[in-house]
Write a structure and sequence with these properties.
Blueprint (H helix, E strand, L loop, with lengths): L3 E6 L4 H15 L3 E6 L9 H6 L5 H19 L3 E3 L11 H14 L3 E4 L10 H15 L15 E5 L13 E4 L4 H9 L7 H20 L7 E6 L10
Parallel strand pairs: 1-2, 1-4, 2-3, 4-5
Antiparallel strand pairs: 5-7, 6-7
Helix pairs in contact: 1-3, 1-6, 3-6, 4-5
């Protein structure tokens, strides 16, 4: 089966900070990838743009965020799709869940990566989790035939939130992104609306690499991203 990674972010830059390395690594290994940005993050995620010009229009911020995210996606090598659901607050309704369900059914991912279930500092991240959870269940039939295209249930992970301890995030999967880390750095450089996060996520990658080395004994790991599985993995061997 062709490996396919679907990354669903609440805002247009979320995939860069939290999973650019994982996406680039998947592409390096021959997988197909797709990023879905549920919103541009035009209100709550674009502080530096609003500081530059408080009189900007929301639509002009969307244009800038779109361009930044597209450049980052191009550097990584992944397609990206923008749904423009709005942010702060993001509204999740049946129509939008149905839209996401069809996207999942059409792409047929083997792995889905999205936000954590809890985030006391961001109102949109848990909503993205909930929308992804519902759409994943509907696209896989929730165990029975459904009105949607039925696919095999994708493996499902949450990527690391900004403050993991306060979001109930317990990492159980570490991805060695050492070979593609320069692509993540280049992608982060395009995120001018939140440039202050570049140093934070660079440092986090080195810290998670330290954890990965201690867990595995693989001393060559220099940079890593951490994720938390949301469903059990099923294999035919313990090894």
């Amino acid at each position: 089966m062709k490996k396919k990674l679907l990354v669903i972010g609440a805002h247009s830059a979320d995939f860069v900070w939290r999973s650019a390395g994982t996406i680039a690594k998947a592409l390096e290994e021959g997988a197909e990838t797709l990023v879905i940005a549920l919103s541009y993050g035009e209100r709550g995620e674009s502080g530096e743009l609003w500081k530059e010009d408080p009189k900007r229009s929301v639509e002009s911020v969307k244009v800038i965020r779109h361009a930044q995210a597209q450049k980052a996606a191009d550097i990584i090598g992944t397609p990206i799709q923008f749904l423009d659901w709005g942010d702060y607050p993001m509204i999740i309704n049946d129509e939008r869940v149905e839209q996401l369900t069809h996207i999942i059914g059409d792409f047929e991912p083997t792995v889905i990566l999205t936000h954590s279930e809890k985030d006391p500092f961001n109102p949109d991240h848990p909503l993205a989790f909930q929308a992804t959870q519902r759409a994943r269940l509907l696209s896989s039939g929730a165990g029975v035939p459904s009105a949607f295209k039925n696919i095999d249930p994708p493996v499902w992970y949450s990527f690391e939130p900004h403050q993991p301890e306060l979001c109930g995030f317990v990492p159980d999967t570490f991805i060695d992104i050492s070979s593609v880390f320069e692509k993540k750095v280049a992608a982060m450089a395009f995120m001018g609306a939140q440039s202050y996060l570049k140093d934070y996520y660079t440092e986090l990658a080195t810290r998670r690499a330290n954890h990965a080395r201690r867990i595995s004994g693989k001393k060559e790991i220099k940079y890593a991203e951490a994720h938390q599985s949301q469903v059990p993995r099923v294999t035919n061997t313990i090894f």
